[in-house]
């Protein structure tokens, strides 16, 4: 009998319970439905969420800066970064426009990064010609979308959030089906062993 174990000593062949798939699917359906029905509200909510994360991370950085034993330079740098982060986080949390714009520009810059990396790989990669052509097309498409969102932030962000929400809802449906199929399979295995 092979006695392999993972990092924490748990078996490597961990399979989640069926209900975790159903729960993830239901959450994805709910969040996807809310995002599709109210994309601009969802963008603001996402921006606020990031704002709170920035504040929490900055407070942790401030504590690290105060307790740092790396020397005065490292402590001052951490404290300054923490103060700047806290200020930016509070600006995002207290301004709906800032939260919305944060989400908008994160999506736009993400698309531009995808565009440049795809185009770069299309011209420098060692894959076949067909693959390189597809990468170049995907890169140009992402570049157009990124610039479109930068030029028309409200419309572009609303459309992108709706596309992502449709994906979330479809993924949620598949997760629920996977969970229910897993429940049926585990019940069949349990019946065979008894």
From TrEMBL:
User: What GO CC annotations are associated with the protein?
Assistant: plasma membrane
Q: Which residues cross the membrane?
A: 18-38, 45-66, 72-93, 100-121, 133-152, 159-181
Q: InterPro entries in the record, alphabetically?
A: Acid_resist_chaperone_HdeD, DUF308_memb
Has keyword Disulfide bond?
A: no
Assigned keywords, A-Z: Membrane, Transmembrane, Transmembrane helix
Does the record carry Transferase as a key word? no
Q: What is the protein's given name?
A: Uncharacterized protein
Q: What is the protein's species of origin?
A: Methanolacinia petrolearia (strain DSM 11571 / OCM 486 / SEBR 4847)
């Amino acid at each position: 009998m092979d006695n392999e174990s993972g990092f924490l000593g748990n078996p490597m062949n961990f399979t989640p319970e069926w209900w975790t798939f159903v729960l993830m699917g239901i959450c994805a359906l709910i969040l996807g439905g809310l995002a599709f029905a109210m994309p601009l509200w969802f963008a603001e909510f996402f921006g606020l969420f990031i704002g709170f994360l920035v504040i929490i991370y900055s407070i942790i950085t401030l504590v690290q800066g105060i307790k740092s034993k790396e020397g005065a330079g490292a402590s001052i740098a951490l404290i300054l970064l923490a103060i700047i982060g806290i200020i930016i986080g509070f600006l995002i949390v207290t301004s709906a426009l800032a939260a919305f714009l944060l989400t908008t520009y994160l999506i736009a810059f993400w698309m531009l990064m995808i565009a440049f990396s795809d185009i770069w790989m299309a011209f420098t990669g060692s894959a076949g010609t067909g693959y390189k052509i597809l990468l170049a097309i995907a890169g140009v498409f992402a570049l157009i979308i990124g610039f479109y969102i930068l030029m028309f932030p409200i419309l572009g962000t609303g459309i992108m959030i709706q596309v992502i929400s449709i994906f979330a809802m479809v993924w949620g449906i598949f997760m629920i089906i996977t969970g229910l199929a897993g429940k049926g399979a585990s019940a069949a295995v349990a019946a065979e062993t008894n």
